[in-house]
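Supplementary Note 3. Input sequence used for the single-chain structure prediction.
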Amino acid sequence: MNESESKELFEEAGLLFLFEKFQYQFYVTDLLGKIKPEILESFLNCYEFQQNEPLFFDEFAFHFRIFQNISIKNNWVN
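The predicted structure, written as discrete structure tokens, is reproduced below.
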């Protein structure tokens, strides 16, 4: 998934602030580069992130990777 697709999903979920905060880290780690958009969309809809609460990229990546693995192992996405 490319950067513009990722940004659009964050924006649709009302979490554009999160994308803007971690945009460089997403690029460097390629965390979102090889995933299906459905996984990111589901993750952003299931988890709640607040703009005024501190969040490190490592925390975000940890939760996302767990969600991604669960989604794949349970065949929640094709």
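The chain has a mean pLDDT of 95. Residues 3-73 form one domain.
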